[in-house]
Specification:
Layout: E1 3-4, H1 7-12, E2 16-25, H2 31-38, E3 47-49, E4 68-70, E5 74-79, E6 85-90, H3 101-105, E7 110-115, H4 124-133, E8 137-142, H5 152-159, E9 167-170, H6 175-201
Helix pairs in contact: 2-6
């Protein structure tokens, strides 16, 4: 991790440790909402209106009120109570924008994969992407109205996850809930890095 200065840290004369993380998942799962909820700065969005050209491509069945889609990325920043600064990048959800993922993933230490249990298969590609690249990630089960309640073990089994990957329920519209997701990810990253160092030592 590279130590750089955030605006607030620069004013205080201290350096701040920054971490780049990604928020991924299927179309309409809440990535933009999470980034917007936690960001302490005005979030950067690259959203475009859904048009007739997306008919048959973007499945809005479960998110009928959705009128825009992220075409490049979302970006926000949050400083945690311990002074750690998170640069949070939301990835585009549709297949046709996945060429952006490799660029966004450069330097990322971890990821949140958001899940809508009504459309669980939509997150398979995100899970596979981070597993293949060895990027630590957690699962955030976003609570949508009308979605059934599932245990963490049921979600874990459905996604064929290893036992060490955290699964957490959340409402990404709520700032404190969204922060809790990011803190869970940071803790998971730290455990993963510690385990890797121990493995190298032994």
């Amino acid at each position: 991790m590279e130590s750089v200065r955030s605006d607030a840290a620069a004013q205080a004369g201290d350096s701040a440790l920054t971490v780049k993380i990604l928020v991924a998942g299927g179309f309409g799962v809440g990535k933009t909402t999470l980034v917007s909820a936690v960001s302490e700065i005005r979030p950067l969005r690259t959203e475009e209106a859904l048009t007739e050209k997306s008919i048959g491509i973007d499945d809005t069945t479960a998110v009928a009120s959705k009128t825009t889609t992220t075409v490049a990325m979302d970006f926000g920043r949050i400083t945690l109570p311990n002074g750690l600064v998170l640069f949070v990048f939301g990835t585009p959800g549709q297949d046709r924008f996945w060429f952006m993922w490799d660029e966004l993933a450069k330097g990322a230490l971890g990821a949140v994969v958001l899940v809508d249990t009504r459309r669980l298969a939509d997150c398979f590609a995100s899970v596979d992407y981070f597993e293949r690249r060895g990027v630590p990630f957690i699962i955030g089960v976003n609570r949508f109205d009308g979605a059934g309640r599932h245990t963490h073990d049921q979600v874990r089994d459905a996604l064929d996850l290893s036992p060490d990957i955290p699964v957490i329920d959340c409402d990404v519209r709520d700032r404190e809930d969204a922060k809790r997701v990011l803190i869970t990810l940071v803790e998971h990253i730290m455990r993963t890095m510690s385990a890797s160092r121990q493995a190298v030592t032994y």
